[in-house]
TrEMBL record:
Record InterPro entries: DUF2867 (IPR021295), NAD(P)-bd_dom (IPR016040), NAD(P)-bd_dom_sf (IPR036291), NAD(P)-dependent_oxidoreduct (IPR051783)
Name of the protein described by the UniProt record: Uncharacterized conserved protein YbjT, contains NAD(P)-binding and DUF2867 domains
GO molecular function, one term: aldehyde dehydrogenase (NAD+) activity
Pfam family, one: NAD_binding_10
Coiled-coil parts of chain: none
Length: 474
């Protein structure tokens, strides 16, 4: 069967794709930017990659007509710009129009649990999208999930940040809200299991794990799995805005996403019982076991996808390819060269830069710059990196985005996603004669951009000179 997979660079789709291929399907992956497509399965003859932006109807002609089913895995809650409710509605409507002329016999949609009379903005948007998808005259199967637990998921990483960073937590009252977490492995099994099963057409199912817990219980059980003793004091005085700031400064989440999460966490997300797990032969994974499985993946360096890969800079939505050619005119540059004794060793260091490894020199200044960025609503250094030694185009790397990472070309190019009065690139290139070139490029925006460059120039001299010397050391 030929399956259309939307949101193919997203957290869920990257987990689902290998399963679809393993089941023998041909998969058409819809991406806005092919350079961000991470899957190693791209080399498979069963994978077709098409560039589609569901906010731009003119791109939808790239969708082939001979598809049998389609997964709708698009959401905009973490979008740095615009009203995500309107964005999601527009994308869903365009998706419906694109699918009508195809041979699709089923749409599968992953939504949120919506069993309460008062819903958050996020859950109302999910409900609205579901309604739009029903207008396609193609059988719709909706799976509604709450908190998804898995290595790299937003919920998992936020809980991990809170538990591992704070021995004592003073938390808002929404920690008493109940939810029904589900392991990512179960989510993927449900998504794959309902594919082209007529008995699931025109039906919706709440999917969740076997445990119904409050957020406070989730935090404490996470601590138990990690062997940590934690104390949580719930206070009634935290407003939603204060709660959002609390999440933003303590965890790796962005401020817009923190606001939406706090809004959603005030609503109970417990699923209605159904027999879908029995129908599909799925064994539901308890919450504690899901946490242990996630850490197994982390420790084995096998995190397939991460919520942090979502773009933080709206300008990059135009595509990474437009920024690979670093500008020359109207730019400030810090260019340094040095001979290296061991080229492979230097490349290994470059490919491990950032995250837990740090930036090799003046790490306290990098941390200070990250904190300053966070104070003005930027991503700071909190995102780290997915793997300590592997890196690919599209990866998030602290407050940078990887534009190009080629060991064969011996070149790494990063684009800044921090808050800046301009645009910034950082490039490392190892030449054939074992000369390492390190270039920081800044294209200022107006007078403030120029003032910014001169203000940080003394720090650049200290940081960049020290960094290139450390990279060159054998």
């Amino acid at each position: 069967m030929k399956i259309l997979l939307t949101g193919a660079t997203g957290y869920i789709a990257q987990r689902l794709l290998p399963i679809l291929l393993q089941d023998g399907h041909d998969v058409v992956c819809c991406v806005r930017d092919r350079l961000r497509f991470q899957a190693s399965e791209l080399a498979s003859p069963k994978v077709q990659l098409v560039e589609v932006d569901f906010l731009k109807p003119e791109t939808l002609r790239n969708i082939p007509p001979d598809i049998d089913a389609a997964y709708y895995l698009i959401h905009s809650m973490a979008s740095p710009t615009g009203d995500f409710t309107q964005l999601e509605a527009t994308a869903a409507q365009n998706f419906v129009e694109a699918l009508r002329p195809t041979g699709a016999r089923q749409i599968i949609y992953l939504s949120g649990i919506v069993n309460q009379p008062q819903l958050s903005k996020h859950l109302r948007s999910r409900q609205q999208v579901e309604h739009i998808l029903t207008t396609a005259d193609i059988p719709l199967t909706t799976l509604r999930a709450g908190i998804i637990v898995g290595s790299g998921s937003a919920s998992f990483e936020i809980i991990r940040d809170l538990v591992e960073k704070l021995p004592i937590m003073v938390a808002p009252r929404w920690l008493h809200t109940r939810c029904q977490p589900i392991a990512i492995r179960n989510v993927v099994a449900f998504l794959a299991g309902v594919l082209l099963r007529p008995e699931t057409y025109q039906a919706s199912y709440d999917i969740g794990g076997p445990d119904v817990l409050s957020y406070k219980e989730m935090l404490l059980q996470f601590a138990q799995v990690r062997g940590l003793k934690r104390t949580i004091v719930v206070v009634p005085v935290m407003t939603p805005k204060l709660s959002s700031y609390w999440l933003y400064f303590v965890t790796a989440t962005s401020y817009p996403l923190a606001c939406h999460l706090v809004d959603s966490m005030k609503v109970e997300v417990v699923g209605s019982p159904n027999k879908l797990d029995s129908l599909l032969g799925i064994d539901l994974i308890p919450y504690k076991e899901a946490i242990s499985m996630a850490f197994d993946k982390i420790e084995q360096n096998e995190v397939i996808s991460s919520w942090k890969d979502a773009l933080a800079t709206p300008v990059l939505h135009k595509g990474l390819a437009q920024y690979i050619e670093v500008p020359v005119k109207g730019c400030f540059k810090d260019h340094r060269r040095i001979k290296v004794a061991d080229g492979e060793r230097t490349l290994d260091k470059i490919w491990s830069i950032g995250g837990q490894t740090g930036w090799y020199y003046g790490n306290w200044l990098w941390a200070l710059r990250g904190l300053m960025d966070q104070m003005v609503g930027g991503v700071g250094l909190r995102r780290g990196r997915r793997s300590p030694s592997r890196i690919k185009a599209g990866d998030a790397l602290d407050f940078w985005r990887v534009l190009l990472a080629s060991r064969s070309q011996k070149r790494l190019l990063l684009y800044a996603e921090m808050k800046l009065p301009g645009e910034a690139w950082l490039e490392f290139r190892l030449l054939p004669d074992n000369t390492l070139e390190q270039t920081a490029t800044f294209r200022p925006l107006g007078i403030w951009g120029r003032l910014y460059w001169y203000a940080v120039l003394p720090f650049h001299g200290y940081i960049f000179e020290g960094m290139i010397r450390q990279l060159a050391r054998p």
